[in-house]
Amino acid sequence: MSRRALIAGNWKMYGLAAALGELDALSAALAQQPVDADVAVCPPATLLAAAAARLKGSPILLGGQDCHTAPEGAHTGDISAVMLADAGARLVIVGHSERRRDHGETDALVRAKAEAALAAGLTPIVCVGETIEERQAGQAEAVVGRQIAGSLPERGEAVVAYEPVWAIGTGLTASTAEIAAMHAFVRGVLGARGARVRILYGGSVKPQNAQEILALEEVDGALVGGASLKAADFSAIIRALK
Ligand code: PEP
């Protein structure tokens, strides 16, 4: 079964209104040279509605970077999946390692968020990945396997992003052998549904390394942080798809 590639940009906590110009540039680049893949940008929630208005008619999908487990409620400062969808999002990242680290998010919480996303009609991108200490201790597969078992909803169209924590925002990338081995492992862990689930790689993907990473057998796309902030870099990564 062939899976449609997905290249998703995670702007993290970067971007004021002026950054919407990068979306215009990306949209223009894709209009000039369309790609046979899903392209998504996850800006800060403050920019979602304006981005959706700007991208009307563009194939670029919008996503949130996190959501609450409830559709609404007394949760000051949180944003629900229903609200993200209402603002124009089609996807949402859940369980990013920065949220697991900064907000103590557990696998069970990440799964509840992913389920809330599905209920709101959003596609969750569920992030997993080991720390450098876990990899050096030979625990990488055990950690990722546990995270998948605990944070991926049992049903529904979810995307998995394998993001080794030590490669995020560090300029270090896992080797192609490490990526290939972990993606094959994740595909195996997913069992029968593995044929349908897209598995993205994330961790310092750049225009310079995108081609070799995206060419790997079980890599269905990328989750891109820093290099998604500039349309020129992000579109070069998108173009690296075969
Ligand atoms: C990310 O934010 O998910 C990420 C992979 O960041 P970077 O590409 O900057 O390493």
Can you put this structure into words, describing what you see?
- The protein is an alpha/beta fold.
- It has one domain (6-239): Aldolase class I (TIM Barrel).
- 39% of the residues lie in helices and 15% in strands.
- The chain has ten helices and eight strands.
- An eight-stranded parallel β-barrel has the order 1-2-3-4-5-6-7-8, surrounded by six helices.
- Helix 8 (176-190) links the parallel strand 6 (159-162) and strand 7.
- Bound molecules: phosphoenolpyruvate (PEP).
- Residues 10, 12, 163, 168-169, 202-205, 223-227 line the site of phosphoenolpyruvate.
Provide a quick synopsis of the model.
The protein is 39% helix and 15% strand. The chain has 242 residues and is an alpha/beta fold. An 8-stranded parallel barrel has the order 1-2-3-4-5-6-7-8, surrounded by 6 helices.
Low-pLDDT ranges: none
**In sequence order, what are the helices and strands, one letter per element?**
EHEHEHEHHEHHEHEHEH
CATH fold-level assignment: TIM Barrel
CATH superfamily: Aldolase class I
Which strand order do you get reading across the main beta sheet?
1-2-3-4-5-6-7-8
Helix content: 25-40%
- Counting structural domains, the number is 1
Number of E strands: 8
The whole-number mean of residue pLDDT values reads 96
Outline type: globular
Strand content: 5-15%
- For the terminal residues, how far apart are their CA atoms? 17 Å
| Bound ligands, each once | phosphoenolpyruvate
* CATH C-level name: Alpha Beta
Structural class, from helix and strand content? alpha/beta
CATH architecture term? Alpha-Beta Barrel
Rg, please?
Answer: 17 Å
Helix run count? 10
Largest sheet: 8 strands, parallel, barrel
